[in-house]
UniProtKB/TrEMBL annotation:
GO cellular component: membrane
Xref: InterPro entries: NAD(P)-bd_dom_sf, SDR_fam
The protein's name: Uncharacterized protein
Family: Belongs to the short-chain dehydrogenases/reductases (SDR) family.
Presence of keyword Oxidoreductase: yes
Alphabetized PANTHER family for the sequence: (+)-NEOMENTHOL DEHYDROGENASE (PTHR43490), SALUTARIDINE REDUCTASE-LIKE ISOFORM X2 (PTHR43490:SF131)
GO molecular function, a single term: oxidoreductase activity
Keyword line: NADP, Oxidoreductase
Domain of life: Eukaryota
Any Pfam family hit: adh_short_C2
Amino acid sequence: MLRSDATSVKHVTNQSYEGSEACLRTNYYGAKQVTEELSPLLQLSNSTRIVNVSSTLGQLKFISNKKAKKELNDIDGLTLEKVDDVIERFLEDLKEDLLETKGWPIRLSAYKVSKAALNACTRVLAKKYRNIVINAVSPGHIETDINQNIGTSTVEHGAKWPVRLALLPHGGPSGLFYDQMEVSAF
C-alpha cells in the first residue's frame, strides 16, 4: 500500500473496513482509473509502456477464496467488471466479519486482494490495449516507511525492475507478472 502518509506494518495488517478500502483504492482503483483516463493519449504513441508495481503477495496462490481465485485466473473470461465484483465481495465479507468463513486471506488480506486485483487488471488491460506493453512487477521486499524500513532491498535497488520493464523494446512481452526480472505465475 503506497500512501503519502505511510504508517507502520501494524496499521497495514489492521483489517478495518476503512483501511481496507483505502488500500484497494490506492493499489487497484487508482492504477485502473489512471490507465483508463490516460488511454486515449497513451494509444497515440507506438511505444507506450505501463508498469504496475505489484507484489508477490498478490499472486493467486495467496488468495484462498476459491471463487475469487478461479475468477481472477480465468484470463479468457476476465474483465475489469469481474475484478471489481471480486473486490466488492471481499469488502462485503470484511464488513460482515466473514473473511475467514468465506476463505479470504486473514493476514494482510486487503493488501493481497488489492495486488491480486492489480495483477488481474494488468492482464485485462494488456488484452484490451494490444499496442501498449503492460506488465506488473514485484520489486521485492523494499525498505520503506510503511514496513519500518525492514525490507531486504533499498528503494534504489527495487526501482531497477519497473524501470527495466518500462524500457522493454517495442512489441515486447505484455500481460505478464514479474518477480523482479523473472516472469512469474499470477
